[in-house]
Design brief:
Chains A, B: InterPro entries: Glutathione-S-Trfase_C-like (IPR010987), Glutathione-S-Trfase_C_sf (IPR036282), Glutathione_S-Trfase (IPR040079), Glutathione_S-Trfase_N (IPR004045), GST_C (IPR004046), GST_Phi_C (IPR034347), Thioredoxin-like_sf (IPR036249). Chains A, B: Its main location: cytoplasm. Chains A, B: It catalyses: RX + glutathione = an S-substituted glutathione + a halide anion + H(+). Chains A, B: Its EC number is 2.5.1.18. 2 copies of one chain form a homodimer. The first copy, chain A, has 225 residues and is α+β, with helices and mostly antiparallel strands. Chain A folds into 2 domains: 3-85, Glutaredoxin (3-Layer(aba) Sandwich); 99-217, Glutathione S-transferase Yfyf (Class Pi), Chain A, domain 2 (Up-down Bundle), CATH 1.20.1050. Chain A is built from 10 helices and 4 strands, in the order βαβαββαααααααα. The first copy, chain A, has helices at 20-32, 53-56, 75-85, 99-132, 139-159, 173-176, 179-185, 192-195, 198-207, 211-217, and strands spanning 11-15, 36-40, 64-67, 70-73. A 4-stranded mixed beta sheet of chain A has the order 2-1-3-4, with helices on one face. In chain A, α1 (20-32) packs parallel to α3 and α1 (20-32) runs antiparallel to α10 (211-217). The longest helix of chain A is centred in the middle third of the chain and has 34 residues, at 99-132. The first copy, chain A, is globular. The termini of chain A are far apart. The interface between A and B is medium-sized, with 31 and 31 residues.
């Protein structure tokens, strides 16, 4: 890894402090103790859907990380990059030294992507985004996905009865990736879905009390104004 | 990585040759030239939703890989594991020696997970799975997702005008992860969505002509009987 060629430059993170995908990366940067500059992207004027932003991410989404000549999009690719590039500082989020531990980080990171995210994101969208567009939340969509979320969290409840965190007895990217959407979910009327599961509740209280997360959560004001 | 402790054991892959997620892993195993035993899972009697299978994957889904004492689920976690464990044999699918290349593999693998998969999987489901359950495909769901798929593939078309494969001028996991659903999609009445995009079409013809894929495609008979 040619890290030395990129040394001495401050990372630029294009995004917004209330965006769940931007905060996923910000939490990671704070956990690793990596200095960065947050470059705001004006979503309301559609800056992300026009050049030059589209040259950074052709899907027109935030966040984007620029590290020297390297431009990286997709929040979970950025967190992996940061965790591996800065593996010797801050919290070890990927455990590259242990075959079993690093594999379990991958497994439970994929669980977040393919089991958790697809069912929690429509709930967040209905509750926070639709009202901003003058629409009412579609309760049928909420209910359908709450039912699926309960089933996913039942598996988490069992898992967290065996290990303190999802990938094992250590905090990792697998936990971290869940935090933005869980934070917003806990502000909805359906937070009992977490609270009713003792292990999941304790896990959320633990990970959401980490200093790196608290710094980022201060800026997570989506839907509050 | 304690590879030596696992040496000499044949990997066990629990799954089915027609399952898109199982074939994602099988293509990877063939690319790496890794010997494995395919252990069939009887989905029709619900074997995957009962113990002892649920001890292997608490979400009750195929595939699951067993490598000695290590049990791994989520197909994209398994392919990463195989690609890294066997990094010195077969096709290099993750390019760990180059910061830029391995990062672009991560970026475009996340694109598959979060841009491509969510829009192509409902189309595949409506066309192949609903009829098996005695239902008609919901054309509104198909049309809505075809529209989104066109937009995703427009980005791919531009990308593939600059690099031969998604992550760069080398075949990687980022391409491989797309193959099972694209194979089935090309059997639907909407394959022109691929064929109308010259670069995407050429990319699909290239990657689907690889020996590792052709071996696996022979068993992909979903919906044909």
């Amino acid at each position: 890894m040619a890290e030395e060629t990129l040394a001495g430059q401050v990372l630029k993170l294009h995004g917004l402090p209330m965006s769940s995908c931007t905060t996923r990366v910000m939490i990671c940067l704070h956990e690793k103790g990596v200095e960065f500059e947050l470059v705001p992207v004006d979503l309301f004027t559609g800056q992300h859907k026009q050049p030059p932003f589209l040259d950074k991410n052709p899907f027109g989404q935030i966040p984007v990380l620029e590290d020297g000549d390297l431009t990286i999009f997709e929040s979970r690719a950025i967190t992996q990059y940061i965790s591996e590039k800065y593996k010797d500082q801050g919290t070890d989020l990927v455990h590259p030294g242990s075959l079993e531990q690093c594999t379990m980080v991958k497994v439970w990171s994929e669980v977040e992507s393919h089991q958790f995210n697809p069912v929690i994101s429509p709930i967040i969208y209905q509750f926070f985004v639709e009202p901003l567009q003058g629409k009412s939340p579609d309760q049928a969509i909420v209910d359908e996905n709450l039912e699926k979320l309960r089933m996913v969290l039942d598996v988490y409840e069992e898992r967290l009865g065996k290990t303190k965190y999802l990938a094992g007895d250590f905090f990792s990217l697998a936990d971290l990736h869940h935090m933005p959407f869980l934070f917003y979910f806990m502000k909805t009327p359906w937070s009992s879905v977490v609270d009713e599961r003792a292990k999941v509740k304790a896990w959320w209280e633990d990970i959401s009390s980490r200093d790196a997360f608290k710094k980022v959560a201060e800026g997570m004001k989506f839907g509050e104004n």
